[in-house]
Prior knowledge:
By secondary structure, the protein is an alpha/beta fold. The chain has helices at 4-14, 22-43, 50-59, 68-79, 93-106, 122-132, 160-165, 167-176, 196-205, 226-233, 238-241, 255-265, 293-306, 317-335, 364-375, 379-393, 405-414, 441-450, 460-463, 485-492, 517-535, 540-545, 563-572; strands spanning 83-85, 112-116, 139-141, 155-158, 179-184, 210-214, 269-270, 282-289, 398-401, 421-423, 455-458, 475-478, 506-513. It folds into three domains: 4-272, Tandem AAA-ATPase domain (Rossmann fold, 3-Layer(aba) Sandwich), CATH 3.40.50.10810; 278-289 and 376-569, P-loop containing nucleotide triphosphate hydrolases (Rossmann fold, 3-Layer(aba) Sandwich); 293-375, no CATH class.
Amino acid sequence: MAELEAVRDVRRIFGTTIELGPTLTSQIQELIGDRKAREAAVDQASSVNVEELEAELKAAGFRRDLKPFQLKNLARIMALPHAADFSVPGAGKTTVALANFALNRARGRVSRMLVVAPIAAFDAWKDDSKECLDPAPAIVVHGGKDTVIPKGTDILLTNYNRLSTDYDRIREFVGSVPTQLVLDEAHRIKRGARGVHGQASLDLAYAARRRDILTGTPAPQGAYDLIALLSFLYPAQDRQILPPSVYDERAGREDAVLTATSEAIGRYFVRTAKSGLDLPDTEHLIVRRPMGQIQQAIYDALLGRYRGSFSLETRGRHEMDRLGRITMYLLEAASNPMLLVAGSDKEDDPTFEHPPLPVRSDEPLMELLSSYNRYETPWKYAEVQRIVSEAAQRGEKVLVWSSFVRNLKALQKLLAPYNPSVIHGGIPAIEEDVGDDVICRKNELARFKFGSSSVLLANPAACGEGVSLHHWCHHAIYLDRSFNAGQFLQSQDRIHRLGLEPGTITKFTSLVSEGTIDESVNDRLRDKVTALSRLMNDPGLVKVALPEPDENADDSKPLFDDDVSAVMSHLLGPK
């Protein structure tokens, strides 16, 4: 399918007739129909009668009353052959997707639905499906190759890993009966064919009768991230929709590219911004502190070791892998230098995997590391302890984020008096009901929400999606942050979402060690969130998700085209 243009060129240049098989011919005809329907939909203004839509929903067995903005989104989604809902978390994307399914099933376009989502979102899909649809649908959770999928399944839930490992069976499920395919948290396929998740999802797109994507952070790194999403919605049509400049990944946050891309995609998605939810205000605080003398000496030694070993032109695969490890070391040294001697934890997110810092026993750096615990405590740990203690005295709960599982384990001991709950890659996401004494994510969340736990220690990779904490917690602390803007935005949405009581102030505190890579990360996240707000035509996103520029910020610092340049610039030092 990706080489149809080549087939056309062979016909034109060589006058050769190429006969396509019946299956491929049928799929091509369906794609042509998709293109015509897409072009007709974007050329016509939507004139859906909301009252008639509500009546049709009730006739289709949809029981939940939609809010006005949800009805408006649904009307636009139904006008498109395939659509994206880029509304912020908490805006009811799952509910709107189920309404979409109910209408398409009632109209005879689809018979069942496959939802690909993070495991953390399964409960929301199961609960909402039962509450929204009448009769209650037959829901099956796909647990892998051994899962039995009954013929009468209405909704099949799977995650991105299971889709790729059991692709053939899932494709048969989708292709054998007209099926609606929904990708929840669809930003996970942003790597497209270069990633396992993206490849399986893009391949599966051809078999689905209807395709929809849901994510509040569709382009966390820039306009380039949208290619995979548009390719899923409209296979082989992305270049007809997106401007050519999008395909230069390094230009993905340039003003001209953002403007052109926003105009090009605006007709293919709906978005309810946080400003449209009438949420209470947020309060952002950047706490910048100097490190202790030994921690500073360790950080300086790291910089001295690697400074000058890279250039801004370096882009080789080996050098990029090495730079990735060095980035991990710098982030660790800026939070807790003792992480350096251990390397990544086996329960870390795979993207954070790295070996211990190689240090000879006779190096001065080894002497600094061996003496650190005896003389200093990381200032970030002390600050977290102070905030949690003061909050507990007021009867308030605090959420603490760190990308490093070893930080979470260390804080678990330090904050033991506050009965911390912990969620990271090593805490199993058990889907069935289990006893309260079993350590799993569901029970850890229950302890934080309803028990004596005053603090939740969490990893954005494990807890950044599909979890709602806004009724119990209104303060999140970032011990460290990575360059992943999608995780940063998603993590904020755990406690700032629809349903907050009026007047509730949601507070975010980011801890930044002065003069370290923390500063570079802060700058890059600002660039990315600003770019996403431009793409989504959502200027309020910057105000909601980022603090105002700090008066001590260095405005003369140049803006780099990617994260690699930011890290290299930090290593090279000021000119």
